[in-house]
Amino acid sequence: MKIVIIGGGFAGINLAKDLVDIPQAEIILVDRNNYNFFPPLIYQVATGFLEPSSISYPFRKFFKGKKNLNFRLGEFLEVVQNENKIILDNGELFYDYLVFATGAETNYFGMENVKKHAIPMKTLNDAIEMRNKILQNLEKAAIAKDKKERRKLLTVVVAGGGPTGVEVSGMFAEMRKEIIRKEYPELSTTASNIYLVDGGDALLSPMTKASQQDTLEALTKMGVVVKLNTRVKDYDGEKVYFVDGNEIESSNLIWAAGVTASRFKGIPDESYGRGNRLLTNEFNKVISTENIFAIGDTSLMTTDANFPNGHPQVAQVAIQQSKNLAQNFIQLFNKKPMKAFSYNDKGSMAIIGKNKAVVDLPKYHFKGFFAWFVWLFVHLFSLITYRNRLQTFYNWMVAYFAKDQPLRMIIRPNKKSGSMN
After folding, report:
1. Which of 42, 146, 342, 354 sits most deeply, having the most CB atoms within 10 A of its CB?
2. Which of 117, 197, 127, 194 is nearest to 154 (CA)?
3. DSSP string for 148-214
4. Strand pairing partners for 100?
5. Model pLDDT for residues 212-258, shown as the tens digit of each residue
6. How does DSSP classify residue 49?
7. What residues are paired with 327 via a beta bridge?
8. Three-state DSSP state, 75
């Protein structure tokens, strides 16, 4: 029985791991990258506090020695359902069961200028681009003669008050205090502003009121200017324009304001729901298909009584759906009935800065150092390998005690030769 998985994120890699010991299954995981990476920590790569290798790991290295598990590097183009075939940019694959685990991509809400000029925060490539741009703008500011130009280069606007927006804003605030003022003496007399803007009336909207208020107070004390009920309308690379008519001069717009799923050629329109997510039944089978499944961020399941509007697009949903689907494939192989998916919400959390975080558990709310420690522990043990965990732990300890991390290198391709500078 051949199972083809499209996407090697939380959902895809965990499904592959849970199927690897099943002798009846031949598993092929397809991804456009040759590595798995850990999205909740890309902002730390983007700000120079972690190396890319700390949160990523090659698929082929991970799959080594697993006889029924194979990797295929490729870009998915189309599914031909009546032939049980998918078309990639470098060939074709046939399947008995197909699983979409493609996650979500950045949603610019149709604003082409924002898409062109803003810095997204979804992939490892985005993180490296952001690190390069922020560091290059710091160097430009260090030699700028015009105070207005210097202030624009130093001003950071973060759009989106979810966990990513909160975490990157807090990291920038700490960098401003502990690093920029020490390493860039030329900028010591220039004000730099960090704005966190969100179209809603609260930060971390899915979390409790206590977490929202604690986060707002902590960021404000760190010097972040929080603007709620504020929506971005346009961005030309020089100014951020808002719906209410206000504007902020900034060379750095970090876009963490929304995500959308992808549409796939060969999947009928009636199979899609809100945000282009694939509508699935209680077993994660895609509506209007026979042998195609979807898990994680790209899945929209409305049959779970506790989540009638679909599950949140978070890692725990992806992990739990992958485990349930793996068990259901075993049931299918043994010609037994499948088990409906039911999400067990274990809580949510967000880090704000050093010794500052918020954690919501089903019956408890934590903040401060204990919440920060819980966040570190959970994220550390969510990394895919022991190597990633050890490397990340080491980097965190260095950053904690030294209040710094010497990883702020501008590394970019040489456009003339293709080599690295």
Report:
1. 42
2. 194
3. HHHHHHH-EEEE--SHHHHHHHHHHHHHIIIIIHHH-GGGTTS---EEEE-SSSSSSTTS-HHHHHH
4. 6, 294
5. 999 999 999 999 999 999 999 999 999 999 999 999 999 999 999 98
6. S
7. none
8. coil
How far apart CA 167 and CA 117 sit, in angstroms, is 21
Q: Please count the residues of the chain.
A: 421
Q: How many CB atoms lie within 10 A of CB 134?
A: 23
Q: What is the mean pLDDT of the chain?
A: 91
Q: How confident is the model at residue 67 (pLDDT cuts 50, 70, 90)?
A: confident
pTM: 0.90
Buried b (16+ CB within 10 A) or exposed e, 329-365: bbebeeeeebeebebebebbbbbbbbebbbbbeeeeb
The radius of gyration of the chain from alpha carbons, rounded to an integer in Å, stands at 22
The DSSP bridge partners found for residue 293 are 99, 285
Which of 315, 260, 272, 240 has the alpha carbon at shortest distance from 105?
Answer: 260
Contact 309, 273 (CB under 8 A): no
Q: Which residues contact 392 (CB under 8 A, 6 or more apart)?
A: 41, 50, 54, 55, 380, 383
Write out the DSSP string of 385-419: SHHHHHHHHHHHHHHHHHS--S------B-TTTS-
Tell me which DSSP letter residue 9 carries: S
- Which tokens belong to 366? 């934590």
CA-CA-CA-CA torsion sign (308, 314, 317, 321): positive
> What is the full DSSP assignment across 211-252?
HHHHHHHHHHHTTEEEE-S--EEEE-SSEEEETTS-EEE-SE
pLDDT in tens, 382-403: 888 888 899 899 888 887 776 6
Domains of the chain by start residue, with CATH: 2-32+74-104+261-333 (3.50.50.60), 112-258 (3.50.50.100)
